[in-house]
Amino acid sequence: MPKTSARLLSLLSLLQVRRDWSGADLATRLDVSPRTVRRDVDRLRELGYPIAAAKGPDGGYRLGAGSELPPLLFDDDQAVALAAALQTAVVGGGGLEEAALRALNTVRQVMPSRLRRRVDMFQVTAIEEPRAAVGVDVLTALSAAIHAREVLRFDYADGDVPRRAEPHHLVTRRGRWYLVAWDLDRDDWRVFRVDRISPRIPTGPRFTARELPGGDVSAFVTSRFQGSDGAGGWPCRGEVILHAPLSAVAPFARDGVVEELGPDRCRLTLGAWSWPGLAAAFGAFDADVEVVGPPELKAAFGSLARRYAAAAGGTP
After folding, report:
1. Helix (H, G, I), strand (E, B) or coil at 44
2. Which of 12, 74, 271, 289 is 20 to 30 A from 212 (CA-CA)?
C-alpha cells in the first residue's frame, strides 16, 4: 500500500505539470504497465480528482476541473512561493487579509518541517496607511461581470444615483482595488475605487469590449492618477537645468529624465499635476535652477517666489 500511495502521488504530480499525457508516457515515467496506470487513474477519480480520458491507440489523460477543490500537490518551491504570496496578501491590504491568513495557516499546517522553516523565515512588514476593506463577494461579482462582458449596475459612494458601466479590468495600485470601466452615463472611461462600489444584481446586458486608450491598462491607470486623459503622461511637463551633479539628482528624480551637462550641472525633465506643483518639485532639489521651458513653468516659479517671500515675512 505505501508503494501504491507513493505512485498515486507521483501520478498526480505528473498530471498537474502537463495538460495532456498519453497512457504510454505515464507508464514509462512511473515504470509500470499501462494497465496499472488505468487502475491508478480510477483510484484518483474515487478520491475526487476529475481526470478525463481520451480514446485512441495510446489513450490519453487530462486533469480537469471539478465541482469541488480536491487536495493539491505542490513541489517544494511551489509550496514556498504560495506561502510567500499569501503572506504578502495578508499584510498588503486590499480586503483579502482574513481569507489569505486562513489559507496561509492551512498551507503551513500540512507542510513538512523543512518547508515550514523556510516559510517562517519569510517575514513581511507592511508600512501602509489604513485602507478601506473590500469584500471577497464584491471582487467576485466584479470579476464575473468582466469575464461575462455584462454591464455592471452598482451604487457608488459619491452619489445617490445608480451607475451603469461596462467593466473591463480589475487592478490593484498601492494597496487599493480599482475597476477600469466605460461609464455609460458619462460616455467616458472611468477608474472606480472598488471599496466604494456596491454591485446590484442582476447585471445588465452583454456588451462588446471597447479598446482601452493606449491598449495598456497599467499605463492607462497610471496616467489617470497623473491627471491626464489616459493617453499617457503628466498634464504639466517642464525642463530645467539644475546646478547640481547628476549623482545627487538621479536617485530622487522619480519618473523624470536626467541628463548630465557637466560635473556640477544636469538637465532634468519632470511632470506634475500643476505648474506650481512642478515648480515646487524642481525647487525641492536645493540647487540653483535655470528654466528651459515652457513659459508656464517660468510663470509658476514667479508665483511661488512671491508666495514664499510673503511666507518669509516680506510683502505679498
Report:
1. helix
2. 271
Query: Rounded to whole angstroms, how far apart are CA atoms 165 and 174?
Result: 24
What 77-85 contacts at long range (C-beta under 8 Å, 24+ apart), as own/partner pairs, is 79/107, 79/111, 79/115, 79/119, 80/115, 80/118, 80/119, 80/122, 82/107, 83/107, 83/108, 83/111, 83/119, 83/122, 84/119, 84/122
Give the whole-angstrom CA distance, residue 83 versus residue 280. Answer: 43
Instruction: Give the whole-angstrom CA distance, residue 221 versus residue 235.
Output: 14
pTM: 0.52
Please spell the DSSP secondary structure of 163-180, one letter per residue: EEEEEEEEEEETTEEEEE
Residue 38 burial (CB count, 10 A): 15
State how far the Cα of 222 lies from the Cα of 243, in Å rounded to an integer. 30
Element (H, E) at 154: strand 152-156
Would you state the pLDDT for residue 1? 41
Among candidate residues 53, 51, 11, the one with its CA nearest the CA of residue 31: 11
Distance CA 205, CA 198 (A): 18
**Whole-number pLDDT of residue 279:** 93
- Bridge partners, 155 (sequence order): 198
Give residue 127's pLDDT.
57
Q: Which of 237, 243, 236, 239 is nearest to 292 (CA)?
A: 239
Distances (CA, A) of 55 to 23, 42, 60, 241, 311: 10, 16, 7, 72, 83
Classify residue 206 by its DSSP letter.
B
- Spatial neighbors of 154 by CB under 8 A, at least 6 apart, are 162, 163, 165, 197, 198, 199, 200
Confidence at residue 2, expressed as pLDDT on a 0 to 100 scale: 45
How many C-beta atoms surround the C-beta of residue 130 within 10 A? 7
Q: How many degrees, rounded to 5, is the angle at CA 157 between CA 153 and CA 162?
A: 30
